[in-house]
Amino acid sequence: MQGQVDLRKFTAKILGWFRGEKKIRVVILVGLLGIALIFISEIAIPAKKNTQTHTASETLLTQYEAQLEAKLEQIITAIQGAGACKIMVTLDNGVEYIYADEGKNSNETNETQNDTGEHKTSQKSDREYKLVIIQAQNGEEALVVTEMQPKVRGVVVVCQGGGNAVVQEKIIDAVTTALSISSTRVCVMESTAQS
Q1: How many helices (H) and strands (E) are present in the chain, helices listed first?
Q2: Is pTM, for the whole model, over 0.90?
Q3: Mean pLDDT of 121-139
């Protein structure tokens, strides 16, 4: 009996608390605020993951540029007459991946007959792609067959011997051969700094 009395008093208190107009508005406002916070957190979390992936890709691209610049600097400073140099490499896009697939070829042949009795045969060939998925440390991933480094957009070389036409030609030959790019993508300039 005592438990029923306490439960009735408790229920009466709660109902009495909700009867006030201000209190109902506060409860509704708190509920709406909670729903809004849930939606905001759902939107903010994926955006943060995407930003982290984009930042990681930019970091890899910057590291690749720095590696190319360092290697070119070693080569160019070894060229007679070039002297000390500074190099800037610009790249197109980022790293491209080619994924393994379990492709299926399907061939469809249609044979038709027109009004004059001639037979006409048409053939349609399609390829259906299905990526090969493997288990990795962070879950499942598509199997990468080839990783293609970004293409070089251009190279600028500023060196002490950059004003000499023979040295310029040697530098352009070295850069175009090393990076497999055309000479129109290479600019060699003379440095103003004397050492």
Answers
A1: 3, 9
A2: no
A3: 67
